[in-house]
Design a protein that fits this description.
Layout: H1 2-15, H2 30-46, H3 54-64, H4 69-82, H5 87-99, H6 109-127, H7 131-147, H8 151-164, H9 168-181, E1 185-191, E2 198-203, E3 218-220, E4 227-231, E5 234-238, E6 245-250, E7 266-271, E8 278-281, E9 285-288, E10 295-301, E11 305-313, H10 315-323, E12 331-332, H11 333-343, E13 344-353, E14 361-367, H12 368-371, E15 378-386, E16 396-404, E17 407-414, E18 417-424
Parallel strand pairs: 9-16
Antiparallel strand pairs: 1-2, 2-5, 3-6, 4-5, 6-7, 8-10, 10-14, 11-13, 11-15, 12-16, 15-16, 17-18
Helix pairs in contact: 1-2, 2-6, 3-4, 4-5, 5-6, 5-7, 6-7, 7-8, 8-9
């Protein structure tokens, strides 16, 4: 029976392919087409006409539709069984299915009813012989697709319906759906924490992949933008400055990857704030000679003071810090507390005055010799924060790890073991009789 039903579906599709006039928009959706094929097979297997004509069954069902849509759906299904090629029967079935209030005790109905309705409406559209019937079928299909939250296909179905007949109620539904779920601006953000700030507009759908020049759709204060970049659903406008106020306009000709243009131009008032006070280091780690120590560069933004803490990692805590990957990451406040109380020693805490240039990065060397004095050989962590940032801020802390040593160690692992080479950092010469220890992950000396 299933083979015969599928064959019947294929014959109906081949014999009733829609024909379109110029200006009319065809609608196609492979997923809904499969729903239609499956549902037609189900109806033909499970419903019988009972010897009655399709027109007679439809007439009874139409009278039942307002009062008892469930009974009407059975009548229209029988009409389909009597004449599977009749568009009116399929359209009536789709309307009846959408009018049924889902039975809460049958959880699947909330899903099945709109799926079957969309399949029936799609079949009504394929079998429709005239423009008005096509428009009606597509309007019902758009309603069914909305019930399934298929927003883009629903919009396209209604758009196609309007290309056949511009019905006021369908137009109203289309415009409402397009405003709520069509191609539109959903959000925008100003990226002010970078040297060259920009504003990025977020759209509901990916932008057209065939477009190469997005700058023609954008103006900044009625002028061409310096640069516009698009990626996915995001459009970014560059060339702004901190502290500036701008009017960014986007033409309604901007299109999504689905080919839909904005339903209206965009006009945005943008303010780019100054950068927040910030401190960072220029790298992850340093090796400093134990003699003639210089400074560690600190990069600051919009702050005239930097709070600095320096911790020395104890020998017993060094292996754990390496194994845990601490020396490759930025620390948090609780990490600093652990260093101070358990695994290390605080050797310095204070502030350093720095020059300030509004919104520009300023690099200042933190003078180790002048502030701390001679440091013992070992591993250190320097933490810096803007002077007005509280110590109990539990975010990520700008961290600079550095090693103080006169010895440079290089190790190679080979088939015959580990080879260690020790040289003087000051003179690059080999160091003889150096005491080298190999430490295991559990902090035991091997």
């Amino acid at each position: 029976m299933r083979v015969l039903a599928s064959l019947a579906v294929s014959l109906v599709l081949a014999a009733n392919a829609p024909v379109f006039a110029e200006g009319e928009l065809p609608f196609a959706h492979s997923g809904v087409a499969k729903d239609a094929e499956r549902y037609q097979a189900y109806v033909l297997q499970n419903w019988k006409a009972g010897g009655k004509a399709a027109a007679e069954l439809r007439l009874v069902a139409e009278k039942q539709l307002a009062q008892d849509p469930r009974a009407a759906s059975r009548g229209f299904a029988s009409a389909v069984a009597a004449d599977p090629k009749n568009s009116d029967s399929w359209l009536g079935l789709a309307k009846a299915l959408l009018a049924i209030k889902a039975d809460e005790d049958k959880g699947s109905e909330r899903y099945d009813l709109p799926v079957n309705a969309s399949g029936a409406a799609y079949r009504a559209y394929e079998l429709a012989g005239g423009t008005p019937q096509k428009a009606k079928a597509l309007a019902v299909l758009g309603d069914a697709m909305q019930r399934r939250a298929y927003w883009r296909p629903a919009i396209e179905a209604l758009r196609a319906s309007l290309s056949f007949v511009d019905a006021p109620d369908v137009r109203e539904s289309f415009e409402k759906l397009r405003a709520e779920h069509g191609f539109r601006l959903t959000d925008y953000k100003t990226e002010a924490e970078i040297a060259s700030p920009r504003v990025c507009l977020q759209f509901s759908e990916n932008l057209s992949r065939t477009e190469t020049d997005f700058a023609k759709y954008v103006s900044v204060d009625k002028k061409d933008p310096q640069s516009v970049t698009a990626e996915g659903s995001q459009l970014c406008v560059d060339g702004l400055v901190h502290g500036g106020r701008y009017t960014v306009e986007v033409r309604d000709a901007l299109k999504s990857d689905a080919g839909e243009a904005l339903n209206k131009p965009l006009n945005l008032a943008i303010y780019v704030p100054d950068r927040k006070p910030a401190v960072r280091f220029t790298g992850k780690s340093y090796v400093l000679p134990s003699r003639g120590q210089q400074g560690i560069p600190v990069v600051t933004i919009n702050t005239n003071r930097v709070g600095v803490e320096v911790y020395r990692i104890g020998d017993r805590g060094l292996a754990a810090a390496i194994v845990n990957g601490d020396m490759d990451r930025q620390l948090y406040t609780y990490d600093a507390e652990t260093l101070r109380d358990r695994t290390g020693t605080q050797v310095y805490k204070g502030e350093m005055d720095v020059a300030t240039k509004l919104n520009e990065e300023v690099t200042t060397a933190f003078p180790l010799d002048d502030t701390i004095g001679a440091l013992k050989p070992g591993a250190y962590a320097m933490i810096a924060r803007p002077g007005d940032k509280p110590d109990n801020d539990y975010g990520s802390l700008s961290t600079q790890w550095f090693i103080v040593s006169d010895l440079g160690l290089t190790a190679f692992s080979g088939k015959d073991g580990v080879h260690a080479f020790v040289r003087s950092l000051a003179e690059t010469t080999a160091i003889g009789d150096a005491n080298v220890k190999l430490v295991a992950r559990n902090n035991e000396v091997l």
